[in-house]
Amino acid sequence: MKITGVELRRIAMPLVAPFRTSFGTETERDVLLVRVVTSEAEGWGECVAMSEPLYSSEYVDGAAEVMRRFLIPALTALPRVDAYAVGRALEPFKGHRMAKAALESAVLDAELRASNTSFASYLGASRDRVPCGVSVGIMDSIPRLLDAVAGYLDEGYVRIKLKIQPGWDLAPVRAVRDRFGDDLLLQVDANAAYTLLDAPHLAKLDDFGLLLIEQPLADDDLVQHAALAKRLSTPLCLDESIESARHAAAAISLGSCSIINVKPGRVGGYLEARRIHDLCRAHGVAVWCGGMLETGLGRAANVALAALPGFTLPGDTSGSSRYYATDITEPFVLQDGHLPVPTGPGLGVGPVPEILNKVTTSTEWIPS
Ligand code: NPQ
Ligand code: MG
Question: How many domains would you assign to the chain?
């Protein structure tokens, strides 16, 4: 398989409601899609970078620039390409994992469409549906939060994740526990909003029987997460800190976490995500699949990944309607709290041309 060209396509997807986290409020998702055209087939990849570098250092304009200037030329120069070759060819370029992941996904989609294999079977999935959790943003008031959680539970979500930050932590968790009971699977995500000085405060969350606390401290502080883990009974989970299988190995060795949120974009692709899954499984560390407000394209691949045997906790693999009134693919719809794992070749879904064109803000063709 040889690449004949790559299309970069920017789309603007309005969110059904503003999504507020400790790092900011989003009302529209600015997504960079990659379409790789090869001698055999074409494939799609979704770049999960945000428009601003608030979750991590990557951002959409930066991802497009590094792709067109360095990453795509390195791939089009290859006489033959597959997903593993993408990883090897892009290794010399530091960082930019979300950009690399989008290109690897697009090549993998093309490769799998050509060989009539699904993402799920290629990755080694062991299930045909995955249980779904939902991430609930910071709200203006506790009553609004309770209404939102009640709505998601009515839709069938099997696990609730509350976004927290200093000033929005104990009260919302207590209110959700009081209203929905001790059996609700409940966890929180701080997106790095605390410091180790907050350890006594965070320890008060221990009373609420949370599944985990996700990324309480800074991205680059595995040592302080290890210190915090010793002071809490609630399990620590890392998201932003884990950018590769090496980071995961370091975090496990140090005792920085006992659970890992795997996001393929954050770690440079589905192959690295699977390596983290394999490493964690060997060490008895639970993993679950995170989310970055993906469209149906990224969602399809995440659901396939989440069907691997080591994914023992429900992921942020929500239905399309959690974020979008109209998805660019056929929508992912919850059935009894689960999403079906796509079975068709490659991602098993593709963009609906009329919908895709409506949301497209720019396209750029980079020939081989
Ligand atoms: C997390 N996601 O687990 C992220 C963070 C996040 C589902 O909670 C635009 C694009 C807005 C990506 C907001 C969830 C975002 C985003 C939050 C990612 O930490
Ligand atoms: Mg997170």
Answer: 2
Q: 2 with 13: CB under 8 angstroms?
A: no
Residues having CB within 6 Å of any atom of ligand 1: 19, 21, 26, 29, 50, 55, 135, 189, 191, 239, 290-293, 316
Cβ neighbors of 186 (< 8 A, separation 6 or more) are 159, 160, 161, 162, 173, 176, 177, 180, 208, 209, 210, 211
Q: Which ligand minimizes its atom distance to the CA of 133?
A: 1
* pLDDT band per the 50, 70, 90 thresholds, residue 320: very high
- Could you tell me the distance, in angstroms and rounded to a whole number, from the CA of residue 289 to the centre of ligand 1? 12
Please indicate, yes or no, whether residues 218 and 135 belong to a single structural domain of this protein: yes
Residue ranges making up the domain that contains 56:
3-116+350-367
* Spacing, Cα 19 to ligand 1 middle (Å): 8
Reported pTM: 0.97
Q: Look at residue 77 and give its three-state secondary structure.
A: coil
Please check whether residue 354 lies inside any domain of the structure.
yes
270 — pLDDT class (breaks 50, 70, 90): very high
In a domain, 345, yes or no: no
